[in-house]
Amino acid sequence: MDVWASGGVSGSEVNGILLHFDGTEWTEVEVPGGLPMMHAIWGTSSNDVYVGGRFRWIHWDGSTWSNLELPEPMEIFGMWGSDTNNVWTAGFAGALGSAGRVAHWDGQSVSITHLGDASWTCERIWGSQPNDIWVTVGSPGTVAYLYRWDGATWNLVDAGSGIGFLEGISGTAFDDIWAVGLSGLMLHWTGSSWRSYRENPAGLEDAFGVRGNSADDVWAAGTSGTLAHWDGSQWLPVESGTNHTIEALSGNGSDHVWAVGAFDAQGMLVLHWDGNGWSRSPTPAGNNNLHGVWSLSEDDAWAVGTRAALHWDGGAWSAVDIALPPPFNFLNAVWARTSNDVWVTNFIGSIIHWDGVAFTQVFDGTDIGLCGVWGYQDDIWAVGSLGTVLHRSAR
User: Fold this and answer.
1) Predicted model pTM
2) How far is residue 193's CA from residue 281's CA, in Å, rounded to a whole number?
């Protein structure tokens, strides 16, 4: 058995600690130069261990510790890698109100990426393919950004002046993407630029979810149970049957769309569009807010929320045991590749996986809240607060 643990005094640059368990006992590990507060550990074997913390990133090769030189100050909170030459960390500059950062080790050197200004948050993520991934980034104020991954770098894409906080993003192709946000903000990407629909004739106050089935069939949802539909030329309001907030949308065609949101007097809120109208879909009893939904097919869908995971089998919604205590079961986003390969994030930085039999926690390397997950085949991305961007690839 080979286990590592790290910690220390929060904010300290001298009172860090690193422990190692060899199967029999725990011992404190001495590192030349001493340690600051250390937050994160990741490795591939007992001879290949990475540890990160306050302004320091170190590596153990089985015999000695070496420093990975950070090109600028960064306090590391989360760490993940696919192999020893592809390790990612997430953190920030080390002071409250400073910009979030993502660092990458390629086996030779460390590079750091900034995706936004001080106090910003990654909100949602969506992609059309591995080299075309979008992230909405916002701040506690009204400023928001859109970043695009081209397979090599994250690039800020100008969405126009005065753009407010963005909450949702979805599309049907690389040149047909919608982003929605507070104050009913709606943006459309046509392949070369973003167009803003500021007039918002559909009456959306704050929009949280968006789902595109085709270029002339897009749904948006938000506060007070508002739903709006894009027919290719305009947004039009559609009656939902509820006045509670709708947070997320997913579907598989023009006559099969799911919407989930805040619970009401009838219990958990799940709505279904059959091509003619929205109707309430019965759910197991419970006063749980639902924050995410993903539909694989007409008889296979998932909805997740606060202490809740639901599965649709084509006939009814049933509760699935998360098998995790609070707050690990405060789920907020879901993406599925197949019925036996479902990925879920929560508010405290964990990633949870369904293998067709049970949920297991597969990542807990950060305490930064995650709020979005998306994948393409074996490439899976998750985003969250303080500029956290996590990437998993089987390659």
Assistant:
1) 0.67
2) 38
